[in-house]
Amino acid sequence: MNRGEARGFGGRKGSRGQMDYRPKGESPVTVDRSLDESSGSRGRGSRGRGRSTTSWCPRDSSGRGGHEHSPGQVYVQESNAVFVEKGVQHNRRGVSTVDRSLVDSSGSMGRGPRERGGSRTSWSPRDSFGRGGHEHSPVQVYVQESNAVFVEKGVQQHRKLQEDKLGSTKQPDEGAAAFKFSGDNKDLLQSSPSSSSKSISLSGGLFVSKESEDKDVKNGARIHDLVNQMEDVSLSCQDSVSSTSEKVELSSAEDQNSTAHKSGGEGNSSSERNTGPFDISLKKTGIVLKPALFNLNKEKRKSTKGHTGIVIRPGMVLLKNYLSINDQVMIVNKCRQLGLGEGGFYQPGYRDEAILRLKMMCLGKNWDPETSRYGEVRPVDGSRPPKIPVEFNQFIEKAIKESQSLTASKSNETSGEVTMPFMSPDICIVNFYTSTGRLGLHRDKDESEKSIRKGLPVVSFSVGDSAEFLYGDQLDEAMAETLVLESGDVLLFGGKSRNIFHGVRSIRKDTAPKVLLQETSLRPGRLNLTFRQY
Ligand SMILES: O=C(O)CCC(=O)C(=O)O
Ligand SMILES: [Fe+2]
């Protein structure tokens, strides 16, 4: 990894500050999997279990099957063909949409994504690079419904997990509820209205959209920055659980001392570095109220829709909604626990003037931003990085296998080239971004030469608030694509995409699943884990 290369927007590479906000076109191809919400039988506890045996049924974006290399392919399991047909009808009305929940249980039409993507009727087909037309779209969508049998399994697993939880006062039944409820049902592919030029957001459906024009790029970016900074000043319980009136207090020495998020600097001043453990959770006091029923219902709907696999480009796969709420709770709690101990979260400094606007912790090996090297200890304090929790490994293994089957089914290569090689992680970099957090475009290229030559993938988990993730082939934000990564998403980039430039432009405030916040008291922001093999 060489994240110092260009980390921090507005850092030393002049081009990074010059964002292009020009519109690139929009193309909604939504896949809404909320077929059978009322039965309650589509819980996501099965994700990762037995997925490699699933037979995918290719569909193109207009719902036709059997097109081997059809652009914008949407893959759904055979049993859901009825919805594709419904989607086709919808399509024929002139919107490239495969929507299987035209009227959901709340009685509303369709889903939220269009809120950000502009008018539905103005959509036109685009691939992930913003090009028009149906030809050669590099985006494929795979939809898999979960199996009800795993719901119970998930509940049991959740209950067990509760025993390990830090600071939990929950009853087992709440665990069951938590398992069923997940995040909001937002965009699958959507624009990022405030900033990006080419934006893809994915959640429960797929559409590729363009940005609305922003004429004053620099001012816009500055305003965006200021807004983020102001948002962080008002850190409160509403930031994490909007519907509650619970009292929240900062819980670590650093929380109380640091002005990182309040200053909007994400803790980059020397006085904010290494001042003590950073707690990714907020300590709660007083009565804890549950999130509003409305939010829970929305999250429930999302959790019943299974996950979606999307081949973004060769070697790059996004598994939407892949980690269940249970998984996410476990990940947050583990990270919190490790983050408070030796080698835990700290504020990394600058690298070549590039700002690291995040808290970081390394697992397995330490990555030093000052030298861009891996080592056994963290030079800044001599601490040893904690081991990667074994619980995490199962997710990596399954995610890679699933990505392999997705890329294999898409690929027409007979050369035997491995589009997504397997890897066993011995490094995990855990980042926590508060609302003003960001990470400049960079490549992960400090792993061993062999690892990079083989294209061993980086596997990235997103938990908490959504992020605008940039990626592209050049160190130039204006040329970069945007993916909105939501809580529970897993992104893999290996093979031909192993060396992509990538970064995080911004964190979308108040977008984390409410149940996750309730279960973990995760502070406002985003937890990201990237696994690699040295
Ligand atoms: O937060 C993310 O999504 C990306 C993190 C990343 O690129 C890194 O840690 O190297
Ligand atoms: Fe990276």
List keywords for this structure.
13 helices, 534 residues, binds 2-oxoglutaric acid, alpha+beta, binds fe (ii) ion
SSE blueprint:
Blueprint: E1 27-29, E2 31-32, E3 57-59, E4 74-76, H1 81-92, E5 98-99, H2 114-117, E6 140-144, H3 149-164, H4 172-180, E7 198-202, E8 206-210, H5 217-233, H6 237-240, E9 247-249, H7 253-257, H8 260-263, E10 283-285, H9 293-303, E11 307-313, E12 316-320, H10 325-339, E13 359-363, E14 366-368, E15 373-375, H11 390-410, E16 427-433, E17 439-442, H12 449-453, E18 458-464, E19 466-472, E20 481-485, E21 490-493, E22 501-508, H13 514-520, E23 526-532
Parallel strand pairs: 2-5, 4-6, 7-20
Antiparallel strand pairs: 1-8, 3-4, 6-11, 7-8, 9-10, 11-12, 12-21, 13-16, 14-15, 16-23, 17-22, 18-21, 18-23, 19-20, 19-22
Helix pairs in contact: 3-4, 3-10, 10-13
This protein binds 2-oxoglutaric acid (AKG) and fe (ii) ion (FE2).
Alpha-carbon distance between the two ends: 10 Å
Helix content: 10-25%
Q: What is the residue-averaged pLDDT?
A: 62
Tell me the Rg in angstroms: 21 Å
